[in-house]
From TrEMBL:
This is Diguanylate cyclase/phosphodiesterase. Keywords: Membrane, Transmembrane, Transmembrane helix. Residues 219-473 form the EAL domain. InterPro entries: Cyclic-di-GMP_PDE-like, EAL_dom, EAL_sf, GGDEF_dom, Nucleotide_cyclase, Rev_trsase/Diguanyl_cyclase. Residues 76-210 form the GGDEF domain. It holds the Pfam family GGDEF. Signal peptide: none annotated. SUPFAM superfamilies: EAL domain-like (SSF141868), Nucleotide cyclase (SSF55073).
Amino acid sequence: MFKIILQTEMGSVTSTVIFVVVLGITIALLYFLAKNVLTTERRYKEERNILVEGALSRSAMNSYVSSYIAKIGKDVSFSMIYLDLDNFADIDNTFGTKETDKIIEKITKRMVDIMPKNIKVSRYDSDSFMIFVPLDYDKMQALNYARKLNEAINESIDLFGETNINLTASIALCYYPIHGNNIKSMLNSLKLAVYTVKKNGGNAIRIYSEDMSQTDGEFLEYYYQIKKAIEKKEFVLYYHPIIKLDENKIYGAEALLRWEHPEHGLLSPYKFINIMEQSGDIYWVGLWGLESLIKSYYQLKQAYPTEDIKLSFNLSPKQLMYESIATDFQKLLRKYKMNANNIILELAEYALFEKHQTVVESIKKLKHIGFNIAIDGFGLDYATLTRLETAPIDIIKLSKSFISEEQTYVTEKFANLLVEFGKNNKKVIIAEGIENDEMLQKIVNYDIHYGQGYHFAHPMSFDDLKGYYQVLKHNEKI
């Protein structure tokens, strides 16, 4: 009897062992299969980037340079050039993937055609290229080739019909082994040099130098994360409601840019907007922001067809320095058959905007298209107020400091003057930064009918905004 039981238990143990072994083998096979699929997919994406014969993929360039270094040792020198197209996200956003691929193909062909056969060209990323210049060419010759590449990029590119575009690039050079003794360290040097070009406006060539600041190096990491974030659609809009106080309903909502960072969570613009302004990606924000706002408007209108909905977002002087901004915004309006009057464009510190003629012209053009123009953060400023009567401004947003300060004869007089000015010139006055009942009562006493602030709601996701509309629609207390 004992023998039978023992054999049964041994059989059970054996079965368990076999099961565990089979399970382990299965998991291992699945792991290697998944790894193989991911590797194949990565290679496919790389190879898809190679649109012109003679251009290398990223992995092929890395292998080529690593083999070259192993062959020549550290007693000789060669050059690497890194070329990053300026504001290319705007091109992709405007023309779409298909036309963007054609543009890249034409650029790649130009680069391959002007380089000698032993200088290797690689499309290193979606909008960047790596060029390997062997030891046959000295540093001055490498610099001359960088200039030729820059000229090739600057040449106009014909698209469909009579449409053509002009591109620029930020270009960096580094030398082996003084700026890096392997492909990775050289790439880091090149990217840092490119970033310093970007933050100074792009369209220039710079040789890597050890004196490039540590701050640039810290910003560089965020810069390339931002580029990836644009591709991965990690940027989102949060909405801060603006309330029509006498009717207890939503007048509109201000869209605020946020970055859903995979490691650091939801980031406010203070963490990254300065870098985007330096690199030129800020223009992409404007185009993407307007398109996102239009889509949000239509979704809200579908849910609440009887509501008069206005959505707003901020524009910086950097964005308005682009002469094409009005034309590009108008294209988006036509694409979605959108009425510009439903969108508010907010400008901070209007007095500063007036000092740049290109900015002033852009504002006038946007106003002519039909956008509502708002001054954001307006304070106790008699000088600017006297000029607003003829300015293309529809809305004045009072700064938080105006209502948070102790009420004095001066502030009360200015508030009354401002409200009278608004009534006489058909300007909407909105008080920002309302955080409590005391601040709200001040605004009511000043006879201001629109307010915004944490007293009513914090910035929220679009889904939450739709729910907020529903709350006020049923006349529930804010």
